[in-house]
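Section 5: illustrative case.
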């Protein structure tokens, strides 16, 4: 019996390998994408399936939101848009607040979500691992918004320059965060401070937790996104006078809005039009620093600096583990 089972397993493995080899032969270029995706046009994102039977027209549509924020009720904040999207597409729309970047990426990879907003750094992993296609960011009539990395300390501390943080407790957010981890891994050594060498990296999980950790004294310093710090100051969650900024990095694109690569083309095009026709109501504008619309972007162009920093920092796709 065991011999028969072994033969069946080996035959199954061989069959899967042959199918994978066939799929690879049919794909002229894949780049950094996982084996199940193809990038024949070399725009760095997964192409739509060539087999029309692989297109998906799910109902309900599931929209996942980037978890690397604060503890606000984003389902309530996004409700006006969810209601509009349902009316615009004629489909039910469900909001999914993922518990982690990995869980959000897995939800799109497995087909449990078809739309979503990924944090700046996680966007790269979602594209390569989950077949996500970024198409928009937040903005105004003047253009897109940007987000930068800050190194903050308490204003009553003795730290006056980055090198004062050697040997201290410095918080990063998560391994996939562009502003909260990948950028400082590349940029801070140029300023004389090497994360992981000059100080131990302490992952807080979220930008707001890093900020509150500095405020409480849990961390001596933290690398955080400027938009999150500004938002917490604006809402009165923290007192601006209690913090000092030791470093400001270059601006990156804000969180991306994506769709799954295998959405049926007519549905996909309808969704994209719905996004770009929408105007944020006042409550959403207040939450998102006066952004009032979705602005078209190109992942190949607009995420180039993020990809460069991810590569230079040694980050890779395994930071968001693929499902077994």
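Designed sequence:
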């Amino acid at each position: 019996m065991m011999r028969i089972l072994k033969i069946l397993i080996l035959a199954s493995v061989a069959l899967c390998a042959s199918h994978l080899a066939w799929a690879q032969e049919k794909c002229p270029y894949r780049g950094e994408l996982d084996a199940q995706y193809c990038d024949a046009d070399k725009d760095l994102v997964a192409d739509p399936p060539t087999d029309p039977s692989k297109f998906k027209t799910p109902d309900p549509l599931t929209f996942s939101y980037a978890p690397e924020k604060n503890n606000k009720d984003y389902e309530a904040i996004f409700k006006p848009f969810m209601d509009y999207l349902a009316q615009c597409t004629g489909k039910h729309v469900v909001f999914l607040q993922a518990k982690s970047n990995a869980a959000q990426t897995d939800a799109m990879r497995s087909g449990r979500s078809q739309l979503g907003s990924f944090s700046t750094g996680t966007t790269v992993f979602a594209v390569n691992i989950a077949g996500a296609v970024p198409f928009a960011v937040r903005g105004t009539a003047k253009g897109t918004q940007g987000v930068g990395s800050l190194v903050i300390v308490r204003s009553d501390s003795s730290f006056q320059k980055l090198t004062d943080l050697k040997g201290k407790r410095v918080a990063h957010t998560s391994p996939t965060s562009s502003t909260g981890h990948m950028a400082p891994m590349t940029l801070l050594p140029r300023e004389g401070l090497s994360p992981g060498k000059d100080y131990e990296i302490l992952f807080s999980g979220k930008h707001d937790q890093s900020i509150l950790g500095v405020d409480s004294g849990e961390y001596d310093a933290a690398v955080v996104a400027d938009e999150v710090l500004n938002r917490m100051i604006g809402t009165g969650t923290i007192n601006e006078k209690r913090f000092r900024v030791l470093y400001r990095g270059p601006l990156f694109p804000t969180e991306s809005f994506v769709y799954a690569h295998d959405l049926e083309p007519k549905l996909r095009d309808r969704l994209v039009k719905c996004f770009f026709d929408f105007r944020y109501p006042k409550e959403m504008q207040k939450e998102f620093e006066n952004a009032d619309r979705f602005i078209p972007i190109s992942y190949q162009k607009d995420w180039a600096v993020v990809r460069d920093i991810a590569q230079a920092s040694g980050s890779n796709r395994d930071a968001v583990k693929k499902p077994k």
